[in-house]
Amino acid sequence: MVTLDTLLDRFSEDITPNINIVDNGLKEGFLDELRRYLEKHPKKPFLKIRKMREEYLEPFKAHTAFRKQDQFRPAVLSKLAIPILFPESQFGAYLDCDFFVQKDFSSLLQFENEDVDLLAVRDRFIDKMDSHYEGIDSDLFNTNPVAPYFNAGFFVMNLKRWDRKSYWDKVHEISLKKPMAWEDQSILNIAFCNKWKSLPDSWNRMVWPQYLEYSFPKKDRNYHFFGGQKPWDFSPTVSKGLVPMFFKTYKNIPFNGLKIDHLNRPHGIWWLKNFIFPSFPSKEKI
After folding, report:
1. Where does a domain end: 202, 229, 254?
2. Which residues have a Cβ under 8 Å from the Cβ of 10 and sit 6 or more positions away?
């Protein structure tokens, strides 16, 4: 909800946003609260909720290797199925639910008429297709091994340029060849290899709690809390930067069904520990 609230607050006043949500088993009480929240929001966004239908899952379930690994659970497939679930949509952006938004998404409309199918931000750690973090088999998938690799926590789709059936068939074909560590993200990278345009990383600034920027965030950047450590894993009263920013927004959201039990852990102590004993994804602190 913090992602949605910060997203709506930054939208231009003269634009009414359309919010599309894929339902992978959301409780009806939560959905009722969500509808009431959006009805009362000053931006008056349009809301569409679509269920991830069983028929879309069947082709993937049929493959034994993926069924054993739970590789294609609905939460993973839903990102890939956006063009199928929302056939009326012609242009839009996908956003993971672990973002703190500070940029105006309505400015992305400038790309609506560009000659490009997809726009995204290059991944901060998987810099190319054959990176050791993923190691996509270029011979198997007929891709360029040194082509840039994007992070799929945020991407812009120019859907009016897509052949949706061909895209969905390609996703299915890619998924059955080989299991991948980053699931939907790597499938999208294979499907759009050398066919996407790079955006500045301010649109998807991937941050890990050990970075100084976590405590000293900059304006006009969308912060993506990738990985297992999220702002709600720290105490808002003894932390600095993005953690108290997140909780300040969270507390001001009029949403009865929203409750986060944060861990009573100071971010500063966690940061110092990881500075001395660095862990994944890198030792970078800036």
Report:
1. 202
2. 101, 102, 103, 104, 105
